[in-house]
Amino acid sequence: MKDFAGRIAVITGGGTGMGRELARQLAAEGCNIAMCDVSGGAMAETRRLCEAAGLSQGQRLTSHIADVSQEADVARFRDEVERDHESDRIHLLFNNAGIGGGGSFIVNGRDEWERTFDICWGGVYRCTRAFLPMMRRADAGHIVNTSSVNGFWAFIAPDIPQTAYAAAKFAVKGFTEALITDLRLNAPHIKCSVVMPGHIGTSIASNSLKVQTGNQGDEITPREIELARKRIAARNPQADKIPDEEIRKMILERARRFLEDAPTSAAEAATIILDGVRNERWRILVGRDAELIDELVRATPDQAYEKDFFAAFAAKAGWTVGR
User: Fold this and answer.
1) pLDDT in tens, 232-258
2) Is the pTM of this model over 0.85?
3) Distance, CA of 248 to CA of 235 (rounded, Å)
4) 195: number of Cβ within 10 Å
């Protein structure tokens, strides 16, 4: 699928980050877009940006409120896509939605852990199940599942556990790789790719707390502070003594650094992903840091979770994630 013009692309998590940039770049190429997100306001901004760049006559861009961890939401999203795009087929499925949270299997609560896993893995599974029949009716299709470097390296820093997100991203990677044979045998006109980004400049750090707590506003709520405190407690037993206002400042600074200090922008990531789709690459590493982690883990897998390994990688990549 070298040309996206006239195709129909479904994008989950289209309100911000890589989802927004995928929508913008695909729309600029004349692709019809159906995006979902839990935030209507975020999707409205994505739509505004796409329309400001110019849409061709008849090109459709629709937005749909849906939580990909909920079966009923995903089914409704699929039905709305079929209705609003007046088609029983789609060509591109970007399972992009994801959040962080549930870092520690021991310290963090079960609800937070399972919420993270249900979005990062369950969303990929449910949306692929829901939209696969529409892809099978098309002349060509491509499923693009967003994993992470945490899909082959369950680490973010020596003192930060990463269990829910890493487990989900390993599942996404394994599922996508298993689909290669399944699609080749049973739906050969459909391709698939697993995307493994390194540190990409997105709002996932701040959005994750909002999704975990159901907060769509700009203010940091007491529940967000509570979850952030639990995240800190997973590496600092004195976290309960930190004042709320200090936690609030830490939340804002962490979100700023994750967005502004990233070596790869969301727009650059989207370009890499779409180039990978055009070239039918089943494995798409995004960012020099992702390439470097991949090289190092393959070279010395037994050392991958040692502090010296992380220190050597961080020095080479200039990585600040988790610090």
Assistant:
1) 887 788 888 999 999 989 888 888 888
2) yes
3) 18
4) 28
